[in-house]
Amino acid sequence: MDNHEQLIKVIDFWKKEAQNSVLFDRDLTLRIDIGSPEVVDIIGPRRSGKSSVMKLIIKKLPPDSWLYVNFEDPYFFDARSPLIIEELLDTYKTYFNKDVKYLFFDEIQNIRGWEKAVRKLRDAEEYKIFITGSSSKLLSSEIGSVLSGRHLSYTLLPLSFREYLSFKKIDAGNGKDLVLKDTQLRKEFGEYLAQGGFPQIAISNDLELLQQYYRDMVERDIVGRYQVRKKEVLNNLGIYLMTNSAKIISVASLHRLYNVSQEIIAKYINYFREALLVFNMRRYSSSVKSVQKSLPKIYSVDTGLARSVSHSFSEDSGRLLETAVFLELKRRDENIFYYKEDNSEIDFVIKSDKGDTVLIQVCADISSAETREREIKSLVRAADKLKTNRLFLITFDSKEIIHHGNYQITVIPAHRWMINI
User: Fold this and answer.
1) What is the 3-class SS of 23-56, one letter each residue?
2) Whose CB has fewer CB within 10 Å in the chain, the N or C terminal residue?
3) With the C-alpha atoms ordered 210, 216, 219, 224, is the resulting torsion angle positive or negative?
């Protein structure tokens, strides 16, 4: 079979797969500008639904106006030259439709030198191009260097709680639903924290899949990509990062724990970040240099994934809740930091482009008078220092307004905060 015949079969398979997929709506599709000339790149961890977002966009387009290919196809294990992208397009125009306008390249990091081929197609100004990948390095940095100012980047995380409810066919879109379905929503939120937001898990409730997801991400996106030699250190470090989600980490401490150099620890942590398995958040300061030098707080990309890797993390409801809040803030593209100064610790400081400051403290339960006083004092001290009166305390169950001196603290259950955007 010659190359054209193979490509025809590959194109036809993925075309039918895109057309026939049963899909659930994702919020990200509402934000993506289909009409702009810029290349759209979508990054996200494996299994987060990047392919589904592409197919949801495809369903809005005229039939036969698009080419969709997933480069995870076994055909591309050997055919990995950037020339294959041009060959795919030529084959589509010859045998399917010469007037193709939209190009969808899924998991494009599997093609060596893909950025040069994409730049060439972009410069031709004939196509609207969409690409996805499972590496923040491959997309955010590499495409930025070759398409500076000519691409739009989006990050797709596992399902938000709103999307999770949609997958479960539970309507909670208005104030009435929040009241009448409150008991059900609390229960669903507990399950959402436990199993996380990977779409297939939400549909199947098969939690054993999460461990397979984690193994695949580590093996394919870290070990395979970077030819890691100290696999035992890498595996132990991965478990450590998942176990310590929502905690401050120190490279110096970890190098002593695993008896390897700080350079190796820092490099391996960066691998987990590039594979989008973890994110970090820096300490707030008015000094950019101080922010950059601060010890990072680490967060898992998914609460269910962290629980599947580390049983001890599953027992800490406070850090589980804090991780979920962090991920929601990431989905909202907030500029976030943690705050630690003058015996006051705040989980999230949000700085808007307009200079506004919002403080969010996360506490599973404030029924204890001691806990309640501690959280209020921390918020008020930080508010005094940062000159803000926008204070929030997110809990599992409590809902009230706390007045303390000149400050007002809004206490809100997490499930309502996540729904009521």
Assistant:
1) CCCCHHHHCCCCCCCCEEEEECCCCCCHHHHHHH
2) N
3) negative
As a whole-number percent, the residues of the chain with pLDDT over 90 amount to: 78
CA pair distance 305, 212, nearest whole angstrom:
10
Count other C-beta atoms under 10 Å from residue 225's C-beta: 17
Name, in order, each residue with C-beta under 8 angstroms of 403's C-beta and a sequence gap of 6 or more: 409
The whole-chain average pLDDT of the chain stands at: 92
pLDDT at position 400 is 96
Tokens of 214: 């984690």
Q: Which of 96, 97, 72, 91 is nearest to 7 (CA)?
A: 91
Q: Which of 305, 281, 304, 306 is nearest to 294 (CA)?
A: 281
In this prediction, residues 2-27 reach a mean pLDDT of 92
Q: What token pair was written down for 123?
A: 């410069």
* Each residue's pLDDT tens digit, 269-291: 999 999 999 999 999 998 999 99
Q: Is 32 exposed, middle or buried (0-12, 13-18, 19+ CB in 10 A)?
A: middle
pLDDT of 143:
61
Helix or strand run (H / E) with residue 152:
strand 151-155
Q: How does strand 66-70 pair with strand 102-106?
A: parallel
Sequence-separated (6 or more) residues with CB below 8 Å from residue 171: 165, 177
